[in-house]
Amino acid sequence: MFGWLKRHHIPIDTMGGLIATGITIGAFVIAYGQYVTQSRIENERQAKQSYYDFMEISMNNPLYSKPGLRDKPLTDLEYEGFYWYMQIMSQTLEQVFEFVPDEESWNYNALLQFRLHCGYFLSVDYLPEVHSQHFQDLVEEALSIEEEWAKSEGIDLEDICYIDD
């Protein structure tokens, strides 16, 4: 190898510089790959933690987490609790979308929650403009699914999307 370098007039110290540069670039590529992987893992962990915290709130408030369990309209005080429950749910899902924006399983979970709470999303309390476009699109999809199902059953959307007056 040294003979080849001498024949082509490539100084050995230049070759050392090229090797050092190659090693540095390789190390940078590996470090960047590790950073991207760790970021993805941390984002997924944050999304799970946010959703687990929300699930704990849901378990402690079953009349808010599953509106169909109620047999009478909420009192004013109960509706205030429901309103804030929905704010927590909305912010939790927005955080999840921020942490893992393209994850289908999270979109599916959100779609289920939006369908379950479709009455809120039909009410005047839901302000779509304060949410991300992704959030709004999933709400629209959920309402569309509920509307299709209601039509197929011959019932009004308001009958399956429980809305407290």
List keywords for this structure.
165 residues, mainly alpha, 76% helix, single chain, 8 helices
Question: What do you see in this structure?
Answer:
The protein has 165 residues and is an all-alpha fold. It has one domain. The chain is built from eight helices and no strands. α2 packs antiparallel against α4 and α5 packs across α7.
Beta-strand percent range: under 5%
Number of DSSP E strands: 0
| Cα radius of gyration in angstroms | 27 Å
What characteristic shape results from the CA principal axes? elongated
Assembly state (oligomeric): single chain
Q: Which stretches are low in confidence, meaning pLDDT under 50 for 5 or more residues running? A: none
User: Which class best fits the helix and strand makeup?
Assistant: mainly alpha
Number of helices in the DSSP assignment: 8
- Summed up, the domain count is 1
Specify the helix fraction band.
over 70%
Please write out the topology.
Layout: H1 2-7, H2 12-60, H3 62-65, H4 76-99, H5 104-116, H6 118-122, H7 133-153, H8 157-160
Helix pairs in contact: 2-4, 5-7
Briefly characterize the structure.
Helix content is 76%, strand content 0%. The chain has helices at residues 2-7, 12-60, 62-65, 76-99, 104-116, 118-122, 133-153, 157-160.
